[in-house]
Amino acid sequence: MHRERVVRLLLAGALVMTAPGCASDDGADPSQQTGPTGGWRTAGCEFSRMPYFTAVGARRLPATPPRLAAAMERIDRGGRERFADSFAGLEVDQAGVRAIVYRVPSEPFDAFIRNTAEDNCIVVRDAAHAVAELTEWHDRVVADLPYWSAQGIRITTVGSRHDGVGLQIGTTDLEKTRAALHSRYGEEAPLVLVEEGPVRPLRSGP
């Protein structure tokens, strides 16, 4: 299941990165930046790489190099299975031929990333919440969906953000839903509300 999720991420193309810049972007020697707080890069980021493309019919599309894709899969699997209290998620920057890993600062997980990266460029950035914490919140909110429906609160989507910012909840009424959820879960709950309509199934046929 993890492999399928990562493959879908890799095929989606380069993601727009909106996270703030980290300490690794200041030109310092990445091999000397070991964490556990702040951002750092693996030694593979010292080397420039040409973007990788694949042919789909007559089209030439950006793609993730196989070695980088394999490293991302190893980090994703290891992060979820062994370091769930630190790992938050990851994304691919195909133009930069690198991956970005978000994690709650952890020396053991940083060491795992460094040992797993091989010669790939992996940028590590701080996250506020790890996948284990956000999974608990996800399960709690999903279990409460019948309650919210009975309260007239329309929740359309629930999903953990890969950058660890929080649990993203889509709703048709931001203010009403925000007030209701904060009342039930507390102001400090890691919830990110976005205005989002109901998911519509794809129609088949003409």
Protein model, in words:
Helix content is 33%, strand content 22%. Mean pLDDT is 84; it is low at 1-36. α1 packs across α2 and α2 packs antiparallel against α3. It is of the alpha/beta class. It has helices at 2-11, 66-82, 107-116, 131-143, 145-150, 174-185; strands at 40-41, 52-56, 59-63, 87-93, 98-103, 122-126, 155-160, 167-171, 191-195. The chain has six helices and nine strands. The longest helix has 17 residues, at 66-82. The strands form three sheets. A four-stranded mixed beta sheet has the order 1-6-5-4, covered by helices on one side. The chain has a three-stranded mixed beta sheet with strand order 7-8-9. Residues 22-41 are annotated as: Disordered. Keywords: Signal.
Helix content: 25-40%
Rg for CA atoms:
19 Å
Q: Order of strands across the biggest sheet?
A: 1-6-5-4
Task: Note the beta-strand portion.
Answer: 15-25%
Order of helices and strands: HEEEHEEHEHHEEHE
The number of helical runs is 6
Structure classification: alpha/beta
When the domains are counted, the total is 2
Cα separation of the termini: 33 Å
Mean pLDDT: 84
Overall form: globular
Can you summarize the main beta sheet?
Answer: 4 strands, mixed
Please provide the count of β strands: 9
The parts where pLDDT drops under 50 for at least 5 residues are: 1-36
